[in-house]
Design goal:
The chain is of the alpha/beta class. It has helices at 44-59, 94-103, 116-127, 180-184, 186-192, 198-206, 210-234, 251-261, 279-292, and strands at 2-8, 12-18, 21-29, 66-71, 74-76, 79-82, 110-115, 135-140, 144-149, 238-242, 271-274. The protein has nine helices and eleven strands. The chain is globular and about 60 Å long. Bound molecules: zinc ion. The site of zinc ion has 6 residues, from loops.
């Protein structure tokens, strides 16, 4: 069975998937994948149309009836209820819109939309032989994503976990106080350090600059705190860390902080692995979710 997986986070990436592997090449829009502002500037209707076109292109000459789309934000029954980093699409019934457009060519096509970090977690589970495990992933980019596999109904906005009660911590893009993303998010770091880019902050930290050393510690403590919270809710296990800013992670320091924060013996033993952000993984995860949840996915009414 062939399925199409789509990742629409910073740009659009579409691939044909069979047996949890990409078949052929991935289609990217824009082709220059380092242009991370492309989707930010696209009006909602054009964004949906761009998705349709890319999916149609990959579908050509293949019998595909299920499409999975990983999209940033809170997704509920195919509707984008909230998307702080792609606000133009808030409230859109993305699954039904795409399903309707794709089916109009004559082939009934179900579309399943899920959070992009959840797609990434499903992709990690599929490609690392962990389909029978609980897989959790933090994606560190402009925002902070939290994905988990197996897919479970819920909100899972772990990037907005409250990790500090300090009233001065107001850098999160959503406006909430004390959030993980307000400390770890790329935009939040730029707002905090008006005189330094995030790369420079971590470079200065390595050189011993106190302000930057203190921040780098807090940055790791924040992720440890959010991780400890999920361990206290869902138990210990394997955590993956990915995204452009995963390069700043010191796994040993993170491990140390988590061990300080999780003291119950039955909850210890979590491990961390930094993995590169690869579109393939998200595409495979989105396709897998569409395949597994095909019965629940949206078909045009
Ligand atoms: Zn927030």
């Amino acid at each position: 069975m062939q399925t199409i997986g789509v990742l629409a986070a910073e740009h659009i990436a579409v691939g044909l998937v069979e047996n949890n592997q990409i078949v052929g090449s991935i289609r990217n829009l824009p082709e220059n994948t380092s242009d991370t502002n492309y989707l930010l500037e696209l009006p909602a209707d054009e964004l949906v149309e761009a998705l349709r076109q890319q999916i149609e292109f990959v579908r050509k000459n293949h019998n595909v009836t299920a499409v999975g789309v990983g999209f940033p934000g809170i997704i509920h029954n195919g509707v984008v209820e909230e998307s702080p980093n792609l606000q133009q699409i808030k409230g859109h019934d993305l699954a039904n819109a795409l399903s309707y457009m794709l089916s109009s060519s004559g082939v009934p096509t179900s579309v399943h939309v899920l959070n992009d970090a959840d797609a990434f977690a499903a992709g990690i589970a599929a490609t690392k032989g962990l389909l029978d495990r609980l897989v959790r992933v933090w994606t560190l980019g402009n925002g902070v994503g939290y994905g988990r596999y197996p897919l479970t109904p819920g909100v899972w906005e772990g990037g907005h976990a409250v990790v500090t009660l300090d009233p001065k911590e107001t850098f999160c893009n959503c406006g909430g106080r004390g959030h993980l993303e307000g400390i770890m998010g790329y935009r939040a770091m730029r707002r905090r350090f008006l005189d330094l880019e995030p790369d420079e902050v971590f470079e200065h930290a390595r050189e011993g600059d106190k302000r930057c050393v203190d921040f780098a510690k807090m940055w790791h403590q924040a992720l440890a705190a959010a991780t400890a919270s999920t361990i206290h809710m869902s138990g210990p296990g394997k955590f993956f860390i990915s995204g452009h800013n995963a390069k700043y992670i010191d796994p040993d320091l993170l491990d140390l902080y988590v061990r300080e924060m999780v003291r119950m013996s039955s909850l210890q033993g979590s491990t961390f692995e930094v993995v590169p952000i690869e579109h393939e993984t998200g595409i495979i995860g989105a396709a897998l979710s569409a395949e597994r949840l095909g019965a629940q996915a949206s078909l045009p009414k």
